[in-house]
Each structure stands twice: as C-alpha cells, then as structure tokens.
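Q: (2Fe-2S)-binding protein, please. Structure only.
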Amino acid sequence: MLVCHCNIITERDIVSSIQELLTEDEWRLITPLQVYHVMSKRGRCCGCFPKVVDIIVKTTEAWHREKATPEAEVVDFVGRLRAEHDRMARQQAEARARMRKIRGAA
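A: Structure for (2Fe-2S)-binding protein:
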C-alpha cells in the first residue's frame, strides 16, 4: 500500500526500514524522521507521518513479540510510542490551526 505519495513510499518500504533500525537497537524510539533517513528521503508535506507512526507501532510490537520479549516491556515501550504519536498529532493539528488563522487574516 502506498503510504507517502510525495516520495512514492510503500508500507513494505517503511516496515523494512523499521526492522533495520530495530536490528541496530531494538529499544530505540523510532520516529518518522529516522525511518525516512534510512530510506535517504525527506518528509515533504508530512501528511503521511501519522500513518508512519502507526506502522512503527505495529511493526515494533510484532518485532518484540517475535523475539519473545516479556509482555510488560513490550506494553511499556508501545505505550511510549503511542504517547509520541499523540504528541505529534496534536502538534500537527495546532500547526494547521495556526495556518488557517494566518490565511484567514490575510
């Protein structure tokens, strides 16, 4: 499935990049910026970042379950990922609201 229309990046590309990052350090907090860096890409409109975060969470959960990591550690880590996702979504909504306000004042 195509996730990023600006860079033509599929979900498979993103999952592969996340797995590469997890191979290096399975407890790192992965962000969309890191995933794009692995692919030698940059976020353009960044509209896909919330979906990328969802894929990061899903892939990280699957990675740790496959590695038989104790459930308490997986849940704590995934909770931190979801909190970061929520923070990013709030920032994006605030930025959109500011842009609407600026456009409305012009």
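A: Brief note, in case it's useful. The helical segments are 11-24, 32-38, 49-66, 71-105.
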